[in-house]
Design a protein that fits this description.
- There is one protein chain.
- The protein has 163 residues and is mainly alpha-helical.
- It folds into two domains: 72 residues, no CATH class; 63 residues.
- It is 51% helix and 6% strand.
- The strands form two sheets. Strands 1-2 form a two-stranded antiparallel sheet. It has a two-stranded antiparallel sheet with strand order 3-4.
- Strand 3 and strand 4 form a beta hairpin.
- Helix 2 runs antiparallel to helix 3.
- The longest helix is centred in the middle third of the chain and has 28 residues.
- The protein is elongated, with a radius of gyration of 23 Å.
- It binds zinc ion.
- Zinc ion binds next to loops.
Length: 163
């Protein structure tokens, strides 16, 4: 979770809305200070633009998980070997050595868990939830009109015909 850093182009007030890592949300922001509506392309409307490239359960991202796990495993093994060879239980940089061991072990576990998460389809489920949320936002004809006015491409199925 991160705070958004975009500032209102009208009054300069920051948009403080909390968003997830992939910044899924409405592309049109309403300034809480002055009420101005403005486009923020750093947000992503997954029903239109698709899910974030890093959120895809694809070969590339899964491969990165495997490479990451291998690299951190090598770091862990090298550090463990160094620790074993030098036998400095309370030496000058024992704390750093232990720190590297803990962080690299954590990174290996993190990479493997991410891979399992992707492989079991949880990443797809996670994405589906945000696509559904995005589709709900696009049911609002006012929002679609505003997106079109800002020059954003909106698929035909979300554009309601005027009666
Ligand atoms: Zn403002």
């Amino acid at each position: 979770m991160d705070g958004n850093e975009t500032k209102c182009p009208c009054c300069g007030a920051p948009d403080k809305e909390v968003h997830n890592f992939y910044k899924y949300g409405s592309l049109i922001r309403v300034c809480k200070n002055c009420g101005e509506k403005y486009l923020d392309r750093s947000f992503r409307e997954p029903a239109i633009q698709g899910v974030h490239p890093r959120a895809k359960n694809n070969y590339k991202n899964n491969f990165i998980c495997i490479i990451g796990a291998v690299i951190f495993a090598v770091v862990f093994a090298a550090q463990a070997l160094w620790f074993y060879k030098t036998k400095t239980p309370f030496g000058y940089d024992t704390q750093n050595q232990i720190g590297v061991l803990i962080i690299s072990a954590g990174a290996v576990i993190g990479c493997i868990l991410q891979l399992i998460y992707n492989k079991l389809g949880y990443m797809d489920k996670y994405n589906q939830r945000f696509i559904a949320e995005s589709e709900r936002r696009l049911q609002d004809p006012e929002y679609v009109k505003e997106l079109l006015a800002f020059g954003i491409y909106v698929p035909k199925k979300y554009i309601k015909k005027e009666k």
